[in-house]
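Side project, low priority. Logging it here so it doesn't get lost.
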Amino acid sequence: MRHGLTEVLVSVLGPREAKMRSQTIHDRANINVEVHIAAFSTGERRKRTRGDKRMLELASVVKSTFEPVVQTHIYPRSQIDIFIQVIQQDGGLLPACLNGTTLALATAGVAMFDFVCAISGGVHSASPLLDLNTLEENDVPHISVAVMPRTGRVTLVTMDTRLHLDRFEEIFRLVVDASIVLRDEMRAALVKRTQSLVAAIGSGEKKDFMKEVEMEELQ
């Protein structure tokens, strides 16, 4: 998943049996999220340990965002592991992680109630901005919002800076409208990938069939 120059890799494993018995929930699946930030992902090269506060915070936000979205009741006594690797950072890291997780879960066939579409927004002077980079995040007040476009539910709102109430409402409405456009793009990407997989499976079956015919002719 790429948001401008921000790039993350998201992998999903499961639903599968939990490794630890204490992580098993009898009536639903347990969602486990792990975030790793590469030392070279920013200009300041710093190796982050497993207990880094920033990585734990990101993992907690991703987990709390997707717990009401994933249909965990379909997978009782199981675990869904989400692994996020941050390759490059240039603002909008949390939205990139959330959008990448949505696509990874959908690709893995995990049932969800709706897409989670996240995007950051801010205001400079009187002009609203979307999808901020690092410089913009450092200079202007901004928020990050995650929306379920089909139902209109808001699953996450974060604000690290002060923002006037009137400006907040303006940016919030703009971000919600942008999430609908983002959902269409994400859906088109999933459809394109699915079509390529179906075509690959079809060509593979055709090659196997031709091999069987050739073997019968040789016999």
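Brief comment: The chain has four helices and eight strands.
Revisit when time allows.
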